[in-house]
Amino acid sequence: MSQQNSNNSSNNIPVSEVYWTLVAKADKKFSKIRDLPYYQRNRYDTYFYKVFKVYTQLWKFQQENRQKLVEAGLKRWEIGDIASRIGQLYFGQYMRTSEASYLSESYIFYEAVLTREYFKDGMFQDVNLSNKQLRFLARFMTVCLVLNRHDMVFQLVNQLKMLLDECKRAFQETDFKEWKLVVQEIVKFRKAYPAFMNIRPLRYSVVLDLHPDCLPQVVEAKRKLRLRDALLCSYHPNEVKYSELTLDTFRMLQCLEWEPSGSFYQTGRVPPSGVGTGIGQNGAPGPSRVNYSQDISDPTLPPNPRKSILYRPSVTNYLAVLATNCEELPHDGVLLLYLSAAGSSQNSFSSPSHGAGRSFMSRVGDSEASSTSSLNFEFEIANPISAKGNCLSEQSSCLYIGSRSSRGLNGIYPCDLLPFTRRPLFLVIDSDISKSFTALSGSEKGESVIMLLSPAMSLPIPTVDSSRQPSGSSFTSFLTVPLQAFILMLGFTGSDIDMDMYDKADKLLSSSLNEWGLLLAASDNLNPVWAQTLGDPFLRRLILRFIFCRTVLALYAPTFNKTEFLPECIPSLPDAFLPTSDTCQRIVLQLADIFGATSKFNFSEETPMLSDSRSQEN
Question: Where is the region Disordered (predicted)?
């Protein structure tokens, strides 16, 4: 009897009151999960499912009672606000877990809000509603960037510009300066990342790269480790970025994910928006969709390695995230640390070209060929540390992941990473003082550290057009888009390159890297640290691209015999993969020959094809 009375009582509650109660509950839980950090993912899974449960109830309730709610005063923009928040939640969960399905669902919700124009009515009568639309467009652009929906980014940028102009006319007393900076950021980001840089997907494609089941195995490897987690951090004053996603971390983020089979070649289409709605992943509401062929989720592929992206963190925050990631790392896992930042050292090389490459405004930021015919490489440390104890010295080099005004608070020292060498670490350091991190080698607390260290000085890239936008760090470019980095180094732009020529070079580089992978796996003197990571497709690809990068820079005439322009790896790779080897030189020679640029390199006289290549040039 009491239960029946309770049901009758609930039925008497006005629909609008029930709805606004659900809205208040959803707002409260949304605010809580929005402020949670992107690390400590396991700890916050329950919060995610709870907030989606509430939004599922809210979405279904407004669907079932739409007419009554509209009669009670529900506005169209309020429906759009719910859908936009669901898209925001999905993207946040993608950032926490790196699960591609969340990224796909986020796109679907945002795209539905865009096509149905939820925020259109009354937009220029209410400045708050205009700001909602501006924020929606800015967030949707981030999702589209990560998904490489360049056509949609172009559309959104134009909409943002037009909306901003309209808002300035409608609300003349309101200052939209911050939104003007947002437009400048995305425009500069797109210029620094042209379509030429995305001819081949940055993500690992089983269509273009070796399938993980086909990777050559190192028989003598005592264990097989997998990349399970990555911590990506990049900061340079005035660097190219959009929101908190810098150009370098953007590339590395995608480089450590799977490309769904075939989806990269269908990017010309836009998924159907549909008018109905259904229930999406984890019971969350989702717009209905028919044959969404561009869905980035692919059940046939392994899960993506998890990633944490930090922009201008405090050192204590960075170390807290690093400690948490190490704590959550599976027993067979490797943690990749990517650090791209300017350094400070009394003995380090200055890097004017690197600074020039990052000379853009940012909303959150501090506003010759050698004639030597023989090869004489000496792979010495450009900024040597004479003793391990210097790692703890006050004069030790550090990377600035924030303003230089406070060295201790914003500087990452090599010794800061020592406690975390109890777990397998794969370091990629892109900095003018990267070589100072060699101090970690031999001082580890349990696991030998793998290090890929950038040159002390950035590559001087020739160009006939001084106004051409730079494309981020050359070292990171070689690790993520090696062929494009090679072409830019030669002074070409995307418009200079014939696609047939590019395809020929791409096939040559892909087959050559696979050949190197086979030789490396079969090498008799391969360090066990390398052996245990070569079975991971992402780490293997980074290692092979590093070898290519080192060979190219060692042979390139403007950097020939200049150790400050050479990257370094710890531990050493077999001598067969040094730039002096015929194995490595032959590939660079063949690539240079395709682009008619063999004269820009210094090859050994005995390098195969050299005489043929020179005769063709003559």
Answer: 276-307
Peptide bond into 271 cis (omega under 30): no
Residue 41's pLDDT band (boundaries 50, 70, 90)?
A: low
Element (H, E) at 162: helix 150-170
Query: Is a pLDDT exceeding 50 seen at residue 350?
Result: no
Highest mean pLDDT among 310-319, 386-395, 421-430: 421-430
Strand order from edge to edge, sheet including 398-400: 343-344, 398-400, 411-412
Q: How far apart are CA 13 and CA 136, in angstroms?
A: 33
- For the stretch 470-512, pLDDT in tens is 668 899 999 999 999 999 899 887 777 888 999 999 999 999 9
Question: What's the distance, Cα to Cα, between the start and end of the chain in Å?
Answer: 100
Among the listed residues 540, 472, 491, 583, the one whose alpha carbon sits nearest the alpha carbon of residue 235:
472
Give residue 348's identity as a one-letter amino acid code. Answer: S
What is the pLDDT, as a whole number, of residue 7?
A: 46
Residue recorded with tokens 């981030």: 142
- Sheet with 568-570, strands from edge to edge, namely 306-310, 226-235, 333-341, 425-430, 450-453, 568-570
Q: Is 148 left (phi over 0), alpha (psi -120 to 50) or beta?
A: left
pTM: 0.84
Instruction: Read off the pLDDT of residues 385-408 as tens digits, 9 standing for 90 and up.
Output: 443 445 545 457 889 898 776 666
Contacts of 266 (CB under 8 A, 6+ apart): 293, 294
Let me know how long the chain is: 618
3-state helix, strand, coil in the chain (%, to 5): 50, 10, 40
Burial class (CB in 10 A: 0-12, 13-18, 19+), 481: buried
Tokens of 564: 């400050």
What is the three-class DSSP state of 591? helix
- Rg for the chain (alpha carbons), in Å? 26
Residue partners of 80: CB distance under 8 A and separation at least 6: 113, 116, 118, 119, 136
pLDDT of residue 43: 67
Query: Residue 453, Cβ neighbours under 10 Å: how many?
Result: 25
